[in-house]
Amino acid sequence: MEYQNITLSIQKDLLKKVKHIAIEKNTSVSGLLSQTLVDIVNQETGYQRAKERQLKVMESGLELGLSGKTTWSREELHER
Length: 80
Known about the structure:
mainly alpha
């Protein structure tokens, strides 16, 4: 896997907090940011796939297996 270096400017107090978080997670700031970015990409990709699947279902119509015929009444459903 090929890597690309980037330059990031953040506030000094934020960087100090991020360094502490990275130490707690036994990683570097670079590793912490890389994993966070991977998580964001995976989440977005998963959302897009789910959205596309749902749109296909909606376009093709939702089959509930009733063939347009109801074999029960409201009263039957609410009997105790």
